[in-house]
Design a protein that fits this description.
The complex is a heterodimer. By secondary structure, chain A is mainly β. In chain A, 12% of the residues lie in helices and 46% in strands. Chain A is built from 2 helices and 15 strands. Chain B is mainly β. The chains are: A mainly beta, B mainly beta.
């Protein structure tokens, strides 16, 4: 009986470790600051499974523009970056990170496109992605949602300012405000 | 004790009813027939929650074109159709379903754009959506994955032949092969 209790406790603890999630809010920008969004109800939830080295991210938008595609991506703040992050391509192809200036802040970045949030008639939508296995390390990053879909992916709009611009960033409110994610 | 047992059984039954899922395969077409896909591993899983009148659908693509956007839709076979299906707008001619011909089959349809599957470097991707509450009824439908993203939505590519064409259909293999979904 004691052994069963111990096994149950270990199972519960491992489940807890895998599912401990961080929730963070969206903020406006870093390119567009007039795109509608309920900043109180919209959020990003992410968690790391230390066993599988997988990062799960859910992007939730509430009261954005109805029936619109928002491509969601990660900007990593880095000096060099591998060609992939999990199973997704580094837009820059790997190697030296590229300087980018937004909101008066210049930083070297690598970008990874994860998918698309499609909104309904209320402007609500969500998208969940599981990335990995990811190389062990500590990543300084900022999530963002573009003003359309197609940048560095086949089958969407052209990657012009209209579609590439960031409508929402997280954590923000300023380009470069970063979240730290550690993959053990 | 008997009452508790009955309650547990009722709870279990309701959970089973809500989660009973149907899985169906993709087939090629109805416009493009050479788009890569692992048809054995790719699938659509859907279920109806009779209590909430919500339809849950998960689209899974395996071995498709890497780093590509596939907009996923439902085509309803109909004569007339309401302006919305759950929280998504429908594409009709003022309520009248639109006649289209594919693979030599002519039928009247209304389309609903649900979201986008974004593939990774291996051509794999998933997208899950919960639609509803949906008006009670029996719906005769076919799922489609378009050759890009943007049709009927803001922020994507143009709704031209390149982006709108059906790469994969389900059930198939012929336009007009249908699935029946009943919302009680």
């Amino acid at each position: 009986m004691k052994k069963i209790m111990l096994v149950a406790a270990v199972l519960l603890m491992s489940a807890g470790a895998a599912s401990a999630a961080t929730t963070q809010k969206w903020t406006a920008g870093w390119d567009n600051f007039g795109e509608p969004l309920n900043l109180t109800k919209s959020k990003i939830i992410w968690s790391v499974d230390p066993t599988t080295k997988k990062l799960s991210v859910t992007f939730k938008l509430v009261s954005a523009t109805p029936s619109k595609l928002y491509q969601v991506a990660i900007n990593f703040f880095c000096s060099t970056f591998p060609p992939t992050f999990g199973q997704f391509l580094n837009d820059q192809g790997g190697g030296a990170c590229v300087p980018l200036t937004r909101q008066g802040v210049t930083l070297d970045v690598a970008e990874v496109e994860l998918g698309v949030v499609t909104t309904d008639i209320h402007g609500n939508g969500s998208f969940t992605v599981v990335i990995g296995p990811v190389l062990s390390g500590t990543y300084q990053l900022e999530f963002f949602a573009r003003n359309g879909a197609g940048c560095d992916l086949i089958g969407g709009a052209s990657c012009d300012p209209d579609h590439a611009e960031a409508d929402f960033q997280s954590p923000g409110p300023t380009f470069g405000d970063a979240t730290m994610i550690t993959i053990p | 004790m008997k009452r508790i047992f009955l309650m547990v059984v009722a709870l279990l039954l309701s959970v089973i009813a809500a989660s009973a899922a149907t899985t169906q395969k993709w087939t090629a077409g109805w416009d493009n027939f050479s788009e890569p896909l692992n048809y054995n591993k790719s699938k659509i899983t859907w279920s109806v929650n009779p209590t909430t009148s919500k339809l849950s659908v998960t689209f899974k693509l395996v071995g498709a074109t890497p780093s590509k956007l596939y907009q996923v839709t439902i085509h309803f076979f109909c004569t007339t159709f309401p302006p919305t299906f759950g929280q998504f707008p429908t594409e009709t001619n003022n309520g009248a379903c639109v006649t289209i011909t594919r693979q030599g089959v002519t039928a009247s349809v209304a389309a609903v754009e649900l979201g986008v599957v974004t593939t990774d470097i291996n051509g794999n991707g998933t997208f899950a959506v919960v639609v509803g509450p949906v008006a009670s009824g029996t719906y005769t439908i076919e799922f489609v994955a378009r050759n890009g993203a943007g049709c009927g939505l803001v922020g994507g590519g143009p709704c031209d032949t390149n982006h709108a064409a059906g790469d994969f259909q389900s059930p198939g293999p012929t336009f007009g092969d249908t699935t029946t979904i009943t919302i009680p």
